[in-house]
Amino acid sequence: MDRLGKEKFLEDFDKRFNAESFMIVVKHSGLNAGDLASFRRGVRGSGAVFQVVKNSLVRKALRGQSDEIVRAFRGPVGVVLGSDAVGSSKVVADFCKKRESQIQIVMGCLDGVVLKKDEVMRLSSLPSLEELRSQLLRAIQGSATRLVRIFAEPASALARVVDARSRQ
Questions:
Q1: Which of 34-43, 95-104, 121-130, 157-166 has the lowest mean pLDDT?
Q2: pTM of the model
Q3: Which of 20, 116, 124, 147 sits in a 20 to 30 Å window from 165, CA-based?
């Protein structure tokens, strides 16, 4: 990569890093092109981006960040950047479980807070935003239904009493 290409990469990576709230650093070795393309598609489906990076350039781009983040860039690594932390971590964690010897989570970063591998895995076990919305909607609908039944019960009880009385 020539000097202009490196400067462009630094600029683009810095913009993307600052624009996204979530980052996962993954170590990949032994993945063939098809597996890497499959991983990229899965990550893209969660609204994130996967990029294989040159460590020395990323360390330059991350100057001023935590030393833990900078130290993560050793060996063959790639970066997943996105705004949906749970969705992105689910995709990465699932792929890592399937191909444990070929790809591993090194660390994560959520809104500037460094996450260890096990914290990223715990994050992946949380329900997604859509799942949380549906759970909340079910809870609200269930509560509303119960409330209507509670208000309607005295009237229906009175109707049953009147009906029973009329049969006597």
A1: 157-166
A2: 0.73
A3: 147
